[in-house]
Amino acid sequence: MGDIEDKLATVIGDRTSKVLTDVFGIKSVGDLMRHYPRRYMVRGELTDIAQLSEGDEVTILAQVHSSANRPIRGRKGSILEVIVTDGSQKLSLTFFNQAWREKELKVGSQGLFAGKVGVFNGKKQLAHPDYQMIADGTDVDDATKNFAGKYLPVYAATAKMPSWKISQCVEMAISSLDEIADYLPDEIRSSHNYPTLQQALVQLHAPLDLDHADLARERLTFDEAFLLQLMLVMRRNELKKLNTVSRKAIKGGILEAFDAALPFELTGGQRTVIAEIESDLAQPHPMHRLLQGEVGSGKTVIALRAMLAVVDSGGQAALLAPTEVLAAQHVRTFEKLLGPLAHGGTLGSSDKATRITLITGSQNAAARKEALALAAHGDAGIIIGTHALLGEKVEFNDLGLIVVDEQHRFGVEQRDALKVKAQKPPHLLVMTATPIPRTVAMTVFGDLDVSTLRELPLGRQPISTHVIPVLEKPTYLERAWQRIREEVSAGHQAYVVAPRIEPGSDSGSDIDFLFGEDSPDIASVSVLAPELANGALKGLRVAELHGRMSSEEKDSTMRAFASGEIDVLVSTTVIEVGVDVANATVMVIMDADRFGVSQLHQLRGRVGRGSSSGLCLLVTGSPVGTSARERLDAVAATLDGFELSRIDLEQRREGDVLGANQSGTQSHLRLLRVLRDEALIESARSDAENVIATSGDLTSYPALSAEVARMARNAAIDYLDKG
Ligand code: ADP
Ligand code: MG
C-alpha cells in the first residue's frame, strides 16, 4: 500500500501522471488529493443549458436527445451531430468524421460533456467535446465506476485532462493509500467535531452527501489556517527569543525635551500605542510591531518618539519610506518638530541634540557621501531614506530601530536587508496607513504584534466626498474648479490628481492601473496642468508633481507647496501616501474610477488634515450601475478606512492578498479566504497559541511539526508587496 508522498506515476501510470504534472504541477499522490473539486454535480440533475454563455469552458451533465450523421456537402467526410438536453433546452455537439461515436452516445443516456461553448447558426454548441457517459446503474462493469455515487466532483480541468479523468485518478489514488496519518492533534480535531484527514479527503472527493463535503472542506480549510497560524506564532516566538539591546529614554534626554516642545496634545490612542512601543523597546528582545492606523491618525509622531528613545540610548534609528517625496517630507517634519534638537554637533547646539540625514537614490554624490558618513560614524541619530537605505554602501554605527513607513510597499526581504546592517537584531516598527481587517492582519502580519490607531486628533474636520459624473452632469466639473478658486481665495490650497503623467503612452504613469484598459483619453498631469493654469484656474499658482521629475525638482515643489507658494498642485499618485500639508483643503481626482478603493481613501486623506474641513471630488466618466461607479459611491459614503479596505479586498483576487504563489498546486493556502473565513482564522489562531503555549515548540507533535515545516517551505507570504 502506498503513501501520500509517493510519486503519482506509481499509482496511475506514466502518461497520465505526466499530463497532471505538466498542467497542474501535481507530482505526488498527496498533490493529487489536494487538487480539490470546485463543486459537485448531482447525478440525474441536468445542467441548465440556458445558463451557458458563449466562450465559457464548461463541464455539463446532460441527456442525449437524438443524433444524426450526415455527409458534409461538397467535401469528403461526415459530420455527427448529437443533440443533448437538460429537459427543456437543447445543445448541439458536433464531431467530424467520427460516426462511430453514435454507438457510445446512446439516445436516453446521460453523460458529462466538456468543451467551449460556441454558437453556430444561432444555436449553442460544443464542437468535438470531450465526454464521459455515465453508467445508468445496470451495467456494473462500466469503467466509470467512480460515477457510482450521487455526487460527481467537478475539478479544475483542461481539454487534455477533463474533470472525470481527474476523478478517476483520484479514485485510484485513494484506493492505493494506507490510512493517511493525521497531523491535526486529536483534541483539536474532536473539539471542532472534524473528520480525520483521511475521511476529509475522501469525503471531499467522493462525498456521501453535501453536508459531509462541507464539513470535509471546513476541516481542510481550518488546517490551512491552523498551520499558517502555527508557523506565524512560532516565528514570532523565535524572534522574541533573540537577544538585543534594550532601548530606553533617559531622564533629561532628547525625548523628554521633544515632549516638552510638542505643539499639540497626544490623543488617547497615540498614548496607548506609545506605551506599547516603549515597553517593547525596553525589552532585551527585538520588538516586531505593526502600527496600523487611519489615514491622518498621527503615526509619524509616534514613530519619531520611538526613534528618539533609541537615540537617547545611544543608538540610531532608520526610517524607510516608500517614495522620495515622502522621505524628504519626513526630514522636513522631523526637523520642524525637533527644532534645535535636530542640529546636533553644530556650534552652540544642545548636547541633547542629534542629527537627521537623508539617503535617497537620486541625491548627488557629495550629498550622498556626507549622508553615508553621518550614518556610519553615528553622528546622525536619525537616518531617513528610500530603497537606497538598503544599498551595500550604507552602514550604521549602531542601528537600534528600523521604522518602515507604509509597509505594503515593502517586502519581508527588504526589511531583512536592512536588519543585517545592525550588530544585534534591531527593533522593528512597521507602519501602514491602509487599515486592514483584523483577520487579514493576523494572516499576513501574524508574526508581528499589532497596535491599532483608530482615533483622529481632536478638532479634525471630516472630509466630505462627492462623485462628479461628467457624463450625466458635465457642468459639475466647472463647479469643481470654482470650488478650488473659492478655497484658494480663502487662503487654502488644492490638489488635482490625474492618473497619468503624459497622455497616451503606456509608460506615462506612476501606477499600474488597477482597473480598466489604458486609454488615450485618461487625464494626464502634463496636459491638465497648463490647461487649468490658462483656463479654469487662470491667475492661480499651479504646479506639477510626478515621478518623472528629478528628486530636486520634486523636493523643491513639495517645499513650495508646503510653504504656501503654490496654490494648486497637479499631481499623480506620488502624493498618495503620507503627504502632509495641513493647509490643503480640496482635492479633485480626475478619472477616479482608475483607482482602487483604498487608494482613493489614501489620496483624499491628504486634505482635511488641519482644522479646516476637507473636500474631495471624484470625477468620473463611468455610468451609473457600473462597478467602477459603485466603488466611487462606496468611497463617498464612508470615511471608515477599515470598512473600505474590506470592500477593496473583496474586489481583489484573494491571491493579491495572500501573496504570489496562490494559484499553483504548490501553495498550501488553497481553500482559505481571509474575509470569508474570519471565524475559522480566529479559532485557528487561538488553537495555535494554545498548542504552542503548552508544548513550547512542536516536539510532542512530530507529524504536525513536519507539516508546518512543509508549509513554511512552500508558503510565500508576501502580502501586498506586489501592490
Ligand atoms: P498618518 O497617521 O496618516 O501618517 P500623520 O502622522 O502625518 O498621519 O499626522 C497627520 C497630521 O496630524 C500631522 O500634521 C501631524 O502633525 C498632526 N497630528 C498628529 N498627532 C496630532 C495630535 N495629537 N493633535 C493634533 N495634530 C496631530
Ligand atoms: Mg504617514
Automatic annotation (TrEMBL):
CDD domains: DEXHc_RecG, RecG_wedge_OBF. InterPro entries: ATP-dep_DNA_helicase_RecG, DEAD/DEAH_box_helicase_dom, Helicase_ATP-bd, Helicase_C-like, NA-bd_OB-fold, P-loop_NTPase, RecG/Mfd, RecG_dom3_C. GO terms for molecular function: 3'-5' DNA helicase activity; ATP binding; DNA binding; hydrolase activity. SMART domains: DEXDc, HELICc. GO terms for biological process: DNA recombination; DNA repair. The keyword Nuclease does not apply. SUPFAM superfamilies: Nucleic acid-binding proteins (SSF50249), P-loop containing nucleoside triphosphate hydrolases (SSF52540). Residues 476-650 form the Helicase C-terminal domain. Residues 280-453 form the Helicase ATP-binding domain. Its EC number is 5.6.2.4. Keywords: ATP-binding, DNA damage, DNA recombination, DNA repair, DNA-binding, Helicase, Hydrolase, Isomerase, Nucleotide-binding. Transmembrane segments: none annotated. It is an enzyme of class 5 (isomerase). Belongs to the helicase family. RecG subfamily. This is ATP-dependent DNA helicase RecG. It comes from freshwater metagenome. The lineage of its organism: unclassified sequences, metagenomes, ecological metagenomes.
